[in-house]
């Protein structure tokens, strides 16, 4: 059985070998999709430890970079057990990390889980300007637009992007995700829904289609 607290701490301590051993051992037990999602949340909690240590000055930017690589590697190990319904096309999600923000690990996790649930995801990448969201939305007519961001400034970028999308008359549901999003932020931004959990985000998108 996977000890989630040990996993969270190993991510927080940037103990790559321990994290990989724990996850490879976990995947060998053929866990359910729900169990795998819980492991993702444990890794995410580990990143919060990294963030706290960075704020305290105990970790530096190099540690953030390493943490980013570690989490990407960890999610790659979990991907095969995070679900797979590639033959079902549930709908299209246009996704991107908003302008000014270069963080993409959370976005990529949401992308993987959405694809596993049968969505087609058009990923615009990071630091995406409002005009880019609009141009692509006009081309591919998505049912859902997903915006990601973890910097505080991302909230204002999201607000700007939502306003531009609405002004362009694009008829899509909008979901925002990333560590700083809250009920208040969601109202401020003008999005339909928010989440800080990729699995919950997928459920919301499934409700919409
Ligand atoms: C790794 C990391 C980096 C890496 C990012 C690598 C990468 N490829 O993404 C690098 C080194 C590049 C980086 C750079 C910087 N970072 Co940084 N970083 C982090 C760290 C440690 C982890 C972020 C992360 O990946 N979390 C884990 C993921 C899985 O969580 P998540 O994003 O919330 O995603 C989950 C959900 O929210 C959801 N989700 C996410 N997006 C979406 C979208 C949709 C549509 C849905 C439905 C769901 C969803 O799904 C995910 C899984 O459940 C955080 C600390 C923290 N607590 O977050 C700091 C943090 C975000 N960084 C910070 C800072 C300050 C910086 C820098 C300014 C540092 C510097 N001096 O250069 C730069 C900024 C660069 C920029 N302009 O963006 C601060 C932000 C402070 C603030 N209030 O704005 C933090 C909070 C650290 C801290 N405590 O000080 N960083």
UniProtKB/TrEMBL annotation:
Keyword list, A-Z: Cobalt, Metal-binding
Positions of the B12-binding domain: 90-209
Metal-binding as UniProt keyword: yes
Transmembrane segments: none
GO BP, one annotated term: tetrahydrofolate metabolic process
GO molecular function, one term: methionine synthase activity
PROSITE patterns given in the database record: B12_BINDING, B12_BINDING_NTER
GO cellular component, one term: cytosol
Pfam families, sorted: B12-binding, B12-binding_2
All copies of domain B12-binding N-terminal, residue ranges: 1-90
Metal-binding in keyword set: yes
Name of the molecule in the record: Cobalamin-binding protein
Lineage, broadest ranks: Bacteria, Bacillati, Bacillota, Clostridia, Eubacteriales
